[in-house]
What does this fold into?
Amino acid sequence: MKVDLGDLNAFVAVARAKGFRDGARASGSSASGLSEAVRRLEAQLGVRLLNRTTRSVVLTEAGHGLLERLGPALTEVESALDVVNGFRDRAAGSLRLNVPVSAARLVLPHIVPPFLAAYPGIRLEVIAEESFVDVLAAGCDAGIRYEERLEQDMIAVPIGPRVQRFAAAASPAYLDRHGRPEHPRDLLEHACLRGRFPSGAITPWEFERDGEVVRVDPTGPLLVTLGGGADLAVDAAIAGVGIVKLFEDWLRPYLDSGALEPVLEPWWQHFSGPFLYYPGRRLVPAPLRAFVDFIKAWTYQP
It folds into this structure.
């Protein structure tokens, strides 16, 4: 038998208050509404639950039995709803992000520690991969992507540096042996350390200067999967194997130390920084809402 939970709550309110008016005051309802709900419940159950007079409301034996069993059950329901309300009202629980390896390495290290310090009740899980996935189908709350890979029906919030560059570099020893390229097409005569996307695509190297865009497809002795294999390509470049092209921020420590030397720096191409993206504006989970608010208020410090 399917009974309306609201009718059961109305019965409990009247029974505990021993009257419709007092029950209405305690529950924030109207006396007539409680009376109708109790009549409806009695009709559905086929048994009288309350004996009513103009002066009093008294539980029948059936009403006593129902109240005795129903009270703890409704208390448990209220407790369960309080748990759900807690997820809505306080920033606690799990937050899962799907991000490219570059964001996990270059963007999130600046954000995650202060965010987790500000919200100790949040448990953050970061899935770092280069595959373009449906964040919802992957069980994630949000993702980080670059502008050209954002889905149109998603909300996008800037996160991290707003302008980035791809940089090319090689060890000074390699450049001393093989010469320093003066134009991107010179790379066709050099050993270049290439990267392949998980999809299998190997994209050309693109350079830009004064509005001129040059794309080259050089070859070399090493091919790595972008993301997880990028550090191997960097290590190989430092060892003098060839020229690597990667995010400037990824190469910056080695450029500053002198382990790598910039190659074709005037041709390094600028592009817009990444975005946090997530579906819909309604009923955003509290941990995600806290993260969105945090990055909106946070200033990127490279």
